[in-house]
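Ticket #4471: structure output looks truncated?

Reporter: J.K.
Steps to reproduce: submitted the chain below (422 residues) through the standard prediction queue, then opened the result file.
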Amino acid sequence: MHVDPSSGRMWKWMLATAGLVIVVAVAIGYSRTESNREPDLSRLPIESLARLDAQPNANAQVHFVYARRLFDSGHSDEARVPVTRAVDAASKSPKTELAARAFALAGCVAADLGAVARAEGLFQQTEQIRSDDFYVDLGRGTLALQAHRAADAVARLTAASRKEPLSSEAWKRLGQAYLNAAEPDIALEALRRAEHLNPSDPLIHASLGQVLLQLKQFGPAEAEYATVAGLQPSDAYYAAMPARIGALAARTDSDYQRASERLQAALAQSPNDDGLRAELAGLEIRFNQFSLARKELDTILTHNPLISTDCWYNLYTVCKRLADQQGAAEAHKQFDHMILLKNAVADLTIQAEQHPTDARAYLRLSVALLQLRQIDKAYAALTRAAKLDPNDPEIAQAMQGAQAILRSQQGAGGIGGGVPQQ
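Returned output as attached by the reporter:
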């Protein structure tokens, strides 16, 4: 091709040729990059991430992304194994951004599982690398929630929700923090944000139901618990929640009839659920069905005479209404006895806190808790006593007895559900 160097056509030709070379070079480079690029892990379905995570040569990034996906969808238990793998792999290069994120996420998982010391240790490791991490705020907010420090929880979880406004976990926990801080209106707003981001999380709907109950919005609360029951059809507690709310909302005789039938149907499915039976007794008391209420209360207290002070006081009230003075006197006697036991536990708890190295203080506390049939708390206090003085024969004998009780519970399948111990 002949080009006249004295004309402008030469410059047009050179520009066109250069453009063609650039386009070809970019295309070749793009092709090579695409062929060598690792898959975008954030776009992979969770099943694919699970398969990658199980590979022996999986790297820290794979483990972290899989653990984060599980955690962010509300599955802390399932995130424990992959996040542990992420921490182990990332610890080989402990000063990297990935290591910091893995430590922080592992701290969140530990906080959810109640491992407070491990969670704090992981958060401190994170802060040595980066000072401002979403998962540190989320995890420390969770620890504050567990410790009933409502103001601290609100502050931490507000910070977390601002850093990651698309995190349903941040909004869900912030809603719970506001609920604990007696701010149900603000809690409702936060939980609605969480629901919008993750409508299939049953715990979000359960928290919404709890908030709506506080706001006396019984119809919407019942709808939320119906959603929970649909998401967790095998959970008998949530399956019965709409019936429980119907009992709370009952105002007319026809409401009473419907609520009573629903609670009795739920009891037929879960005959050992003393919580349901207590709801039925409460409904019957409100509608002056005292003979029916007495039957339910007698059944509950036969199952567990120390289940709650409320049951004994309700039985006292019912007996008074039925003009059974002897029954009322006996119920009030048992009520007073339980109050004494609870006061003793409160006093002994204070003593143990004031003398944290006194093994005998923890032994006395464990005995008082055992009298209230608070087996797990009693065993925890006794374990503390045994650690403080492993050579005390009385503590050793008490530990043998406690272990025998726990074995018998496990053999019987544990204690059935019911009214929370008070």
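Triage note (M.O.): checked the attachment and the full token line is present. DSSP finds 21 helices and no strands in the chain.
Status: closed, working as intended.
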